[in-house]
Design brief:
Length: 401
Amino acid sequence: MKIRHCIAHFGFWAILLVACSGSDNNNDAIVLPPGDVGLKLVQDLLVPAGFIVEEFATGLEFPTTIAFPPDGSNRLFVNELQSGRIKIMQDGQFNTLPFTDLETMVTGGFPSAGENGLIGLAFDPDYVANRYVYVTFAVRSPNGTIGKIARMKDQNNRAVDFEILLDNLPSAPGHQIENLAFGPDGKLYVSIGDAFEDAKAQDLNQFNGKILRLNPDGSIPSDNPDPDSYVWASGLRNSFGLVFNDNSDLLATENGPDMKDELNVIVKGGNYGWPLVLGNSAQPEFINPIFVWENIVSPNTILFYKGSQFPQNFKGKMFTVLFGSTFSDGPSPIAKRIRVGTFQGNGLESTVTFEDFATYNFDAKGNPLGLAEGPDGMLYLSDIFQGKIFRIRFGNSGAPL
């Protein structure tokens, strides 16, 4: 994620959050339609014929990652960037108490500016049995900000047994700890930006510009490239979205400086070249992306559609959120949209072609960020600056969760 045109070369949200952080921390700011009343239709998120966009929730404070736990409960967990809260939406409304307020559980408090704060959210593969929820976030420290990976248990919609798994991770006004995802091997993969120290992305003794791989308890897997290191892959600038496909390939969106955003297949011990190369390279020691956006679009959250609420031809396709220029007015000719990708091949030989699926046509400021597939097969999209969650569905089916 990154700021474009507003603040050059600063990661995605940067300082401008200070200017637009007028919402307070009161839970009363949440505005939700009653569960038994139809949701407001959204006309300014343009989708293909037959699809409908609805305003699912408003009044959120910088919503980032959104996710449904794999227990069939129809609960939507929502991270808020700077409040440090994770909220749960259930039966058409947010619970009175948040799942957790991390600001009360850490030293230093949450940043009030920049892209730092609460971003990553993932559920343990064995969540139904162990109830573990994993997060990535950054907090203030005497020397700036530091990133952390933590987990906690979900006990009746409230977090208990909070523990830090990995601490003192690189952070800065941008390019800090980003997202996390569990692989089919049961390991936890975490993306960390270069924290504006790009040379460290090539230093295997530093976590800047890396993908890390952890055991769920925070220990180092014995089959990592170096059994004494969390580093799984290097040479990355600011990867955000992480997802595994049905071939067990790990895909990551990568935000470039002022050109050449990337989609990478992350492999064990892979070096993706930053800051020595950008985009495709003829140098064999570096791994090329499988797709390059020549112009800046800020690709962020990615997911593969597994449901059946959409027409059958969407099943298995990859949906990618293009964030665009931060807090900018109006639509974008190339970003501020969701694109759907069709894959061919496997691993580093994969190719992908994209076409538009949902395009912003709002006059107001706003940027799409988090994307989740619900147990109902519908897509849920967070807009960090509008403070909203939109729901995209096909046809007339579907009552509010």
